[in-house]
Fold this protein.
Amino acid sequence: MMDFITGPLFALSLLIFVGGLGLRVILYIRGLDAKLERVAYNFHFSRSIPGALVSIGKWLIPGGTAGWRKQPVAAAAFFLLHVGAIFVPLFVLGHTVLLEDLTGISLPSLPGELADVLTIATLCGLVLLVARRLTSPALRQLNSCQDWLVLAVTILPFFTGLMASFDTASYDTWCILHVLSGELFLILAPFTKLSHIALYFMSRAQLGMDYAIKRGGATRGGAFPW
Amino acid sequence: MSEVLCSPTPVTTKEGIHALLKDKGGEEYYRQMKNLWVDQVALGRDLERTCKSRTRTWLSICAHCAMCADSCFFYKANDNDPKQIPSYKIQSTLGEMIRKSGRVDTEFMINAMNVAWGQCTCCNRCGVYCPHGIDTGVMFSYLRGLLFKHGFVPWELKIGSGMHRVYGAQMDVTEEDWVETCEWMVEENQDEWPDLEIPVDKENADVMYILNAREVKHYPEDIAKAAILFHVTGTNWTVPSKGWENTSLTMFAGDWEGCAQNVKRVYAAVDRLKPKMVVGTECGHAHRATVVEGPYWAGRDSGEPPVPFLHYVEWVAMCLRTGKLKIDPAKKIKVPCTLQDSCNYVRNHGLGKITREIMSYIAEDFREMDPNGDHNFCCGGGGGLNGIGRYRNERNVALKHKLEQIKATGAELVISPCHNCWDAIRDMVEVYEEHNLKWTFLKPLLVDMMIIPDHIRHNEI
Ligand code: SF4
Ligand code: SF4
């Protein structure tokens, strides 16, 4: 069982994840249309590239934009979630071993305690986001099934992973659940809002370029002050 | 009335405009709209052809996080009504239309129209507050285009688009009316400014001036003031007899074909007269339509106009900076004043520093609104909303937000180099009876406070 889910099934999930997201990025770029969008993508590189980078980068910094500063609670929840969500899956010891076995790529791994702390932070972020979704009238207007699905699919691997490391008596069960839920995440990512893992960069780059090329890039002096 | 007033066909004749104008308030027009058939196949095809990865990605990755809610003045002015969240507004209209591949009915289209024009001014502020960079204002503008194409457009904008197509101006101002107004303004001011002129169709001038038809029809003194400022600064300038109008109700209407006709008319005047630069009047959307979006409609790949096109504030700042225009320190504005930047030239064209530079020359007690510059809120009546009777209540509620922002500065005067913002402030003063608040364009202020150089003949009147 374990061999199958950490072997072929894992390879397949990873392939769907990487291939699917890669395809979405390619389709995104191919679908850009300078005429329809009225953005001269092929001109003014000296300002469009910095514009894209600033538009991506500033939003990756806590408090880096007016948007984050205006909504500190939501921002805190997002960052709590995302720091762990990026570092834990990539660098936790079990994962790096698995990845190396499968692909030969060897990544440095996080100390176990740090991974636990990050996982707990991620789960706190997720719980905050769930609470926000349930209580805020604004969010309640927007909620859709997919929003809940995406939250559940994200919570599961973190929760089961944490349990595997604490509830050693049922280690095997938690492990199987963890691997399966992680693979579910990988498989669903390209087809749901989780695709923002890659498309966030596309969308932010596009808007940054839009502002830099057309909407004041030549007159504002510097990139848009997000 | 049996005449067809509401249909997907744009208005292209004087008779068509006349028939619509006769239908006061668009009563019959909106009655006909209730029975306007939606060509679902064509709509589906339009979506297939024009709705590409950018928009589809925006709609599909929206996290429903509501970070954009507070950024929209409609949401704030309507006591945080969840139905006014940008994401909700666009998902329930364009989003739904795409999910159904255009298979929507008349009722759906009318609701989409009400949201696209009555609940969004395309100010683009929400896009600045969305972590994913989802620009709902851009999507609403796109939706307006689809709705226009299928005949679901507010009555006033149907007329506006027709005016541009028929008269080449947003109002029924003909070439003769325009040139005569120039002559009239020169005569009117000759006693005070004996050497004043408004040179029409002069080739190779340094500046070609273009403006808003409202100025010709309702505020001709604004043209006189522009002429005086060009005269006093010793500018070698001209106005074109054709292609003099830079506004674009077609842009508000989503009439992209009409937009292209407008901007091509202006660029043709540039080709004909070969000015070194073009200066447009104090109007935000006119600047966007001619300088920011315009080059694309005119088919210019680089996205840039054929010669430098300046908004009036850029020209004023340049004159103040170079000393061509000097301000009498004794006449600077003494009362507390603030600045309403148009979304179309500030967020969407980065001119915030320029307007502040002007303030540093002319105001002693300048107070910023909070937020301001690129993050400024819409006046409350942008995107054509000021002019649409059907959404007057929505507009008046929205104005409250800007009024509170202005009042918080303690300013007694609002400087507003944009026709739309100027109108919105005029109306909020009236609706909310804030009669101590004054508002103004830049030109009258500058004419009153400039130092007239000795070599310019001037008689006190
Ligand atoms: S802030 Fe962006 S992602 Fe969040 S709800 Fe608004 S549009 Fe969607
Ligand atoms: S573009 Fe402006 S008016 Fe429209 S939804 Fe966004 S913030 Fe609101």
Notes: Chain B has three domains: 37-153, 165-320, 327-449. Chain B has 22 helices and seven strands. The longest strand of chain B covers residues 207-210. Chain B touches chain A through 55 residues (CB under 8 Å).
